Amino acid sequence: MQEHELPEPEATRRASGVAESSRANRGWWDRNADEYQVEHGTFLGDDRFVWGPEGLDEVQAELLGPAEDLKGRDVLEIGAGAAQCSRWLAAQGARPVALDLSHRQLQHALRIDDLNSSAPLPLVQADAGALPFADGSFDLACSAYGALPFVADPVLVLREVRRVLRPGGRFVFSVTHPMRWAFPDEPGPEGLSVAASYFDRTPYVEQDEQGNAVYVEHHRTVGDRVRDVVAGGFRLVDLVEPEWPEWNTQEWGGWSPLRGSLIPGTAIFVCERD
């Protein structure tokens, strides 16, 4: 091991609260943003709105509504990364704000805007559980694998999103399909056998030698997610489970054509604020 290299973190399952999860994941995304954008930037594009590794595109899905209806809408993207989704929304005439916990991820958003000589998007670094916006600031909110898989208190986030939405506003978010937690996170045949209880909600934690969490992901069952949506003050309009398309031959972590043809990898919750 090189002197400057850090030891590999230990993977375990243990409790992890709101503050620890937020701190660990902010650090993880700051450290890994460069590698993430190199590895997945081509698939995500600079201005595409992709809901997950299957490649479901908002152009076809229209989960936020028809593209022509987005013009003039105020939209909050949560867990925006390099703001690819917000860039697509801006191209439809919407007024997006891209929010992320990670400062380094948002620097990549600035890099892409500079590279394309496009007007910089409004970027905000903040925790999804404490949104720095006034009540009723947005018409729509969206999150493609942002925030919700990584927070210890998803209802807190949902209530915050509801607060900043105007009446009738829609929030659409995608997460790892809860079924995946029962299987190993492997793209090949070894990822097709159940290895854990689907009902075990113990968080997945990577921790350093001192036991400090450096990455945390939280599991919720499908029923948990539905109850969270309702407790957050939303009405669940749809639950979308994208099928793996024939054109997508890539592997992304535990997602692959093999597994995608057999079990769902992503769950997308379409919610409305009555």
Reconstruct the topology from this structure.
Layout: E1 10-13, H1 18-44, H2 58-61, E2 74-78, H3 84-91, E3 95-100, H4 103-115, E4 123-125, E5 138-144, H5 154-164, E6 165-176, E7 204-207, E8 213-217, H6 222-231, E9 235-240, H7 257-260, E10 266-272
Parallel strand pairs: 2-3, 2-5, 3-4, 5-6
Antiparallel strand pairs: 1-7, 6-10, 7-8, 9-10
Helix pairs in contact: 1-4
Description:
The structure is a single chain. The chain is built from 7 helices and 10 strands. The protein has helices at 18-44, 58-61, 84-91, 103-115, 154-164, 222-231, 257-260; strands at residues 10-13, 74-78, 95-100, 123-125, 138-144, 165-176, 204-207, 213-217, 235-240, 266-272. Helix 1 (18-44) runs parallel beside helix 4 (103-115). The longest helix is centred in the N-terminal third of the chain and has 27 residues, at 18-44.
State the main characteristics.
28% helix; 274 residues; 22% strand; 7 helices
Number of helices: 7
- The total strand number stands at 10
Q: Could you say which structural class the secondary elements and strand pairing correspond to?
A: alpha/beta
Strand portion:
15-25%
Overall mean pLDDT: 96
- What ranges have pLDDT less than 50 throughout 5 or more consecutive residues? none
Order of helices and strands: EHHEHEHEEHEEEHEHE
Q: Largest sheet, if any?
A: 7 strands, mixed
Radius of gyration: 18 Å
Give, in spatial order, the strands making up the sheet with the most strands.
4-3-2-5-6-10-9
Alpha-carbon distance between the termini?
56 Å
Kindly state the percentage of residues in helix.
25-40%
